[in-house]
Amino acid sequence: MTRSKRETERKYAAPSADHTSWLPELTGVDGIASVVERGIDELDAVYHDTEDLRLAGASATLRRRTGGADAGWHLKLPLSGDSREEIEAPLSDTVPDALRDLALSRTRGAELTPVVRIRSTRRTWHLVDSDRAVLAELTIDSVRAEPLRGTTTLAAWTEMEVELAEDADPTLLDLVDKTLHRNGIDRADNPSKLARALESTGVGGPRLPDARAHNVEPGSAGDEVLKYLDEQVRTLVDLDPAVRRDRPDSVHKMRVTCRRLRSTLRSYRSVLARDVTDPIRDDLKWLGGELGAERDQEVLMERLGSRIGDEPPELVLGPVAARLKVWNVANTSEARVRTLEALHSPRHLALLDSLATLTERPPLRRKAARKPGKVMVKAILKEYDRLAGRMAHALELSPGTERDTALHEARKSAKKTRYATEPARASLGKHAKRLGKRVKAVQKVLGDHQDSVVARDALRNQALAAHAAGEPGFTWGLLYGKEQAVAAERERELPTVWADASKPGLRKALVR
């Protein structure tokens, strides 16, 4: 059993833990009515990580802590800015399986062992408003760190933290920060106790991603592609625990990240060697497909549920909503199992390893050292020309199954073209961005068309099941007809949207 919370805090270098005469008056800062002392706690935490400190390298921490109000196992995962997500599990002798799974995208299955022990004597104050509601918590820790591997060097220091209450205004941290800075109290150099303990005790630091380690010229085509790949791999790693916990929209985001990575490795074969990237692309296609069952069901249910909800009650004949709900529960449950099995599979761990190796030791080709102007433009235009060919073919066909298939293929090409522009936007600027925007408009029209194709197939199946059960089929047929109308409207809209994306000026501006 786990629970999680968002933790937003800032750390400061504290002059002393023995007295607090150096601490400035905070009463009156953005609604702080008083500062209430809450006492002293003795905290004892053992941090766990892999042999090569993969968690620390990904700005994550895993600890077993006793003492204080929240004794237990804590896995902290980075969010944006000063925030992290803290996932808690009850005390046990070994790492809880739930936390081990949530850390898996970062550990990649490597063994977790104790790294350092950190004991803190903590004094706590609550910053409260006039209604006695807690706005933030201020703590001063006298810290002692003891390495549990490699060295015997001890370390000690004092630090202060200001942690925002869950529903408090984030601007409070900025105002408190200004007050502290004016009084000579600056932010701590290390982002966490663990980071400082690893450095101070000599255990060592994690190997952090560094573009210079790629041996590629800054500003080159290879540099731009690798920066983008680094970002997408981090996104995939970050989304993994969210998908495991079924967080809203996480499956969709992870699937899109798989597609972005696949498309980039395909489009920029001139930069990265295919003998390394093609197997990774195959694994990304597999993972995206496993996630697709759950995501496609989400999209389809949202569409059909909305369609039924929009119909007047007199046109909804029979147990339409109930049948749809039963169908959705069965399909969602099956798709969810498929997603979790994929994330627990050896193939997923192997993919994570391959992606880590790709970003740390990329298989650069000769063109990676060249300027992005030619290399990246050529890659984008290759995808764009493939899209143009598929669009021309689809628009020549008469409405029907063959055209539906051709439009779906064109949609996939539109995505690949748009994704090819994304790594190039830093170097090619507005021209790559403009082309990506126009192609995205085409993709959107084609996407709605394809969703209608899928919805019609589902509606037909529901109508057949309803007929077999002796239920009215009127509503299913009505919705089928409306989806046909939607598809027809998208097909009428498509030539105009494509004409806007295929203007000669867009291509010429990119080439210049």
Report on this structure.
- The longest helix is centred in the last third of the chain and has 39 residues, at 430-468.
- Helix content is 54%, strand content 17%.
- The model has no long low-confidence stretch (mean pLDDT 94).
- Strand 6 and strand 7 form a beta hairpin.
- The chain is built from 16 helices and 8 strands.
- The chain is of the alpha+beta class and 512 residues long.
Search tags:
8-stranded antiparallel barrel; 16 helices; 512 residues
The count of helical stretches stands at: 16
As a whole number of angstroms, the C-alpha radius of gyration is 28 Å
Strand content: 15-25%
* Number of DSSP E strands: 8
Major sheet attributes: 8 strands, antiparallel, barrel
Basic shape: globular
Quick take:
This protein has helices at 54-57, 97-102, 104-107, 171-182, 193-201, 221-244, 250-267, 274-310, 320-343, 346-360, 372-396, 401-421, 425-428, 430-468, 474-501, 504-511; strands spanning 3-13, 34-49, 61-66, 72-78, 83-89, 113-128, 134-147, 155-164. It is an alpha+beta fold and 512 residues long.
What is the element layout, followed by pairings?
Elements: E1 3-13, E2 34-49, H1 54-57, E3 61-66, E4 72-78, E5 83-89, H2 97-102, H3 104-107, E6 113-128, E7 134-147, E8 155-164, H4 171-182, H5 193-201, H6 221-244, H7 250-267, H8 274-310, H9 320-343, H10 346-360, H11 372-396, H12 401-421, H13 425-428, H14 430-468, H15 474-501, H16 504-511
Antiparallel strand pairs: 1-5, 1-8, 2-3, 2-6, 3-4, 4-5, 6-7, 7-8
